Amino acid sequence: LPVRNDSILHVLTQWGFYYKILKFKTNKSVVTIHDVFDEYGGINQQIASIINLVDAIIVPSRYTRTSILENFDCRKQIFVIPNSVNRNKFKPCTLEQERIEFNRLLNNKLHVLGNAKFIIYVGTEKVSKNLETLFRAFSLCRHNVENLKLIKVGPPRRRQYLLKLAKELGIHKDVIWLDHVTDQELCYLYNISSALVIPSIAEGFSVPLIEAMACGTPVIASNRAACPEVVEDAGLLFDPYDENELSEKILKILYDEKLKSTLKKKGLERSRLFDPEIIAEEWLNTYGQL
Fold this sequence. Notes:
Layout: E1 8-11, E2 28-32, H1 47-51, E3 56-59, H2 62-71, E4 77-80, H3 96-110, E5 117-122, H4 131-141, E6 148-153, H5 159-169, E7 175-178, H6 183-192, E8 193-198, H7 207-214, E9 219-222, H8 227-231, E10 236-238, H9 243-255, H10 257-271, H11 276-288
Parallel strand pairs: 1-2, 2-3, 3-4, 5-6, 5-8, 6-7, 8-9, 9-10
Helix pairs in contact: 3-6, 4-5, 4-9, 7-10
């Protein structure tokens, strides 16, 4: 196909084989680098070969920008443009039909009593996601909260190890594993949950944080990597290596209705900053500077 002289190639991820098409570009090019980590939280050296192929780099957080500059010889322009959330898909559920969907989801997929309280985690099972701290904190919370369930959404990766850990901690009957859900189902799951927990030790952004905030669900996030700049004052932060601190934050949200209401309001307000139209405008402004 012919390529216009003023065209710009924007590769939206550094993962997989997609970035390899940059080798065949004929015009200006941009790549979005979401983070610089491998699955263990170390530096992914593949990034070095990518940044030399483009005219500019887009990253979703200041943290990722700093990580690139500290770990690679990067002489390209780096623009910080956060990820977006579709607030037509992820939103508070208030209509009666949506409450009916809660019940359908509870009966058909969760297989637990409707009066349970839920904590939710959304993401992979990579080592850097630090699910061990979440599991240990959840086991502490169960001693104080009756019928508390942990919903773990995301594909298996270290499943046998995590199943064994859950059994050792005595929480295996209270962890609900959902490998794949639709966006609509995920919206309902955020809405029925008391809080989303992201315990990552390495994170370039964390889209679930802004999805949950758009649904009015309080968020509890690691105080490491990019999580603090995504959340700011719209959620609670904790040391990802301290399960006691995390359990205290979870219990605080479960029992403090005023705090829960405040975080819901702040989260909804903050999620508006990640509207797709705002982010698309920032992309266009970036293209104009090349």
